[in-house]
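Weekly modeling sync, notes
Attendees: S.R. (lead), two postdocs, one rotation student

Agenda item 3: backlog of single-chain predictions. S.R. asked that every request posted to the team notebook include the full sequence so nobody has to chase files. The rotation student volunteered to paste the first one in as an example of the format we agreed on. Action items at the bottom.

Example entry:
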Amino acid sequence: MKIKDMCEVERPREKMLSKGPQALSNPELLAILLRTGSGRRSAIDLAHELLCLTGGRLSVKLAPDPLKMLLSIKGIGPDKAATVIAAMELGRRAFEEETMLGSKSLCEPSSVYDIMRPHLKGLDHEELWVIYLNRANFLIAKERITSGGPDSTIIDNRQVVRRCLEHQASGIIIVHNHPSGSPRPGKQDIIRTGSLKKALDTFGISLLDHVIVCDDCYFSFATNDISLP
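Predicted structure, as returned to the notebook:
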């Protein structure tokens, strides 16, 4: 059934305006973003197919390549795909604003996990991020440094030190993900972290923690007193 053939109070856009967005299902909200259907398939039908591809989950990262996934659905072209991706990115940024308050000292690994999970959740490859902090451990900036394979990524000590100096950071926290689902550090994780710490010590920059993030858990070097070589 096409949306225009539905009872007016049940059409997603009209329903949202009269009852509020919380009254709509996920497919109905997505249908508003998609605007129109294709052929005999309504925007709600397209939304259902999209959610089937994501296992029914609404995530800021719908897939490793969300554009490719969206364009694989007949009836979703570049314009519709761009609208959905933009909405998901706005949701991620809104969540980040709530969890990453610049007026708070960033010292708990749970706070680091909350900040970085939207960036790293659902990835099928490892990424290394650096969080730059001032002397009070307030956030200056954060950025992805490297992107690797499914079970490894490289820490470029010189690049990290250079970026610390450019940001005038007094300390950093490094974060990377384990797509395997286990946050426990491997031998190479420990060796590379120790090597980076030595490089940072030369410039008086503190390595405050190394947090390994999985979809639903994390591991903190600082909390677990990992002995670095």
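Discussion: group reviewed the output briefly. The mean pLDDT is 87.
Action items: rotation student to repeat for the remaining queue; S.R. to check formatting next week.
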